């Protein structure tokens, strides 16, 4: 194992150095940005600005809004991180060895394929987890003082929901496993990188669009024409009208306000309005879904890789 | 050397290999006793590299089985006794020569001989600090050879190691191999599509053609099992061969004008083919003549029976 670990380190040290530099640079940037933010918002009462529809005074809003751009940019980096790890770390992990034929040198030594794969994938996985944890934590740390503030970055934005928390780490692991498996199957680095990018983006897109189907939103019901409760930090999932039997009807039935709305609601026999929302606590529900899916996929891909390596056609 | 109870270095039993429905190898049976230097000869695409990959365990046969000193290729027992240089001689271009040797030292620590590996590299005038990527083809072969010989394996598998090397380097490399054989009595399988470069070196031959073993055996036995026949073609027979010659013993015959030249298998227990008298010029063929005659007589269909050496 020590020999294969040395080889893994020797081959990945450039990537590890690059990753370390990236994390260091991001940490410095975030530390400075966050210090600026803390200084800017000191002395303001931010509680008024919590959630959408907040009664946020312009000065308070101005003080905290400057950091939004930085947080979004950092979030975008966090969003791109899994794809980058899959392409540049995963795809060449076995793919380049097959392409250059060097796998034939390595796998005819005393140490076997199991130790070779365990060492290089283990080291890569450790680095992927470390880097993605660091970036996810930096995002959360910078965002925390102005989380879910009026017109700012909300928990359900991809910058936060996809790029921070445990699901970001699981996503990086999945991307690494996907790149590794694709490299083994495609046997060429460049096509494997392209395929990895496509797969990682596709899975992220599917999760983003379909994960809400697995979570039931909370119904906020307002009887009659009473003013609706403000959305706050919740994530809107649409409006419905309510009839006395408890059934809900689509919003398209009455697209009016004021007196016209009253007439329309009376005409349809609607007695109240329903606002379907995901409260901010659902952040952890969504994170749980993403994390579970990513980890299961990663596990399946690693299993596929080990099986394919053992039932070899490596020459 | 030929202890009959010893495990053969290689034993292939009914090996068949398919790639996406294409048959690369079929019904390959052969045995290579330990201590031999075997030439694996065959035209390009005959399946030589596939056979090497089966010997190293980089590939598993579709049917049949391969054994290296009795062990399944790719298992630890077989891996520690085998060293392999594949045709493309892959090395890590970003590594220095010293780092490349460290791959062998750290991944094959069991019998690794660092001094020998360094000597082989040093004798080629290669500095350990040189990057592999900057080396010429000949020097790269030398590093690959140092990596394989440093492992101190009992079976050395070399897939066309001499191809695209200039004659001088070719001579050097052959010298290195022969020194190793003399030193440690190892078994070597060395492939080539050109026989002459191996004829003086090997004492065993495997002729592979169209995915089948056409001929396998000791080179001396092979030479004694055949007779080369030359002379005026017999005007009374359509093929120009002597009327009494056993046609089933003919491997290959050609007539150029009135001149006949043929290779015939000797009658069992004799040094002449049956039906050939002293009017013909006969002599023991060279190994190359035997192999070429077999290659030229290649049936276009694959249903030709494997010929084993006497």
Automatic annotation (TrEMBL), chain A:
<keyword id="KW-1133">Transmembrane helix</keyword>
<keyword id="KW-0812">Transmembrane</keyword>
<feature type="transmembrane region" description="Helical">
    <location>
        <begin position="121"/>
        <end position="144"/>
    </location>
</feature>
<feature type="transmembrane region" description="Helical">
    <location>
        <begin position="164"/>
        <end position="185"/>
    </location>
</feature>
<protein>
    <submittedName>
        <fullName>ABC transporter permease subunit</fullName>
    </submittedName>
</protein>
<feature type="transmembrane region" description="Helical">
    <location>
        <begin position="192"/>
        <end position="210"/>
    </location>
</feature>
<keyword id="KW-0472">Membrane</keyword>
<feature type="transmembrane region" description="Helical">
    <location>
        <begin position="291"/>
        <end position="309"/>
    </location>
</feature>
<feature type="transmembrane region" description="Helical">
    <location>
        <begin position="73"/>
        <end position="94"/>
    </location>
</feature>
Automatic annotation (TrEMBL), chain B:
<keyword id="KW-0067">ATP-binding</keyword>
<dbReference type="InterPro" id="IPR003439">
    <property type="entry name" value="ABC_transporter-like_ATP-bd"/>
</dbReference>
<dbReference type="InterPro" id="IPR051782">
    <property type="entry name" value="ABC_Transporter_VariousFunc"/>
</dbReference>
<dbReference type="GO" id="GO:0005524">
    <property type="term" value="F:ATP binding"/>
</dbReference>
<dbReference type="InterPro" id="IPR003593">
    <property type="entry name" value="AAA+_ATPase"/>
</dbReference>
<protein>
    <submittedName>
        <fullName>ABC transporter ATP-binding protein</fullName>
    </submittedName>
</protein>
<keyword id="KW-0813">Transport</keyword>
<dbReference type="Pfam" id="PF00005">
    <property type="entry name" value="ABC_tran"/>
</dbReference>
<dbReference type="InterPro" id="IPR027417">
    <property type="entry name" value="P-loop_NTPase"/>
</dbReference>
<feature type="domain" description="ABC transporter">
    <location>
        <begin position="10"/>
        <end position="235"/>
    </location>
</feature>
<keyword id="KW-0547">Nucleotide-binding</keyword>
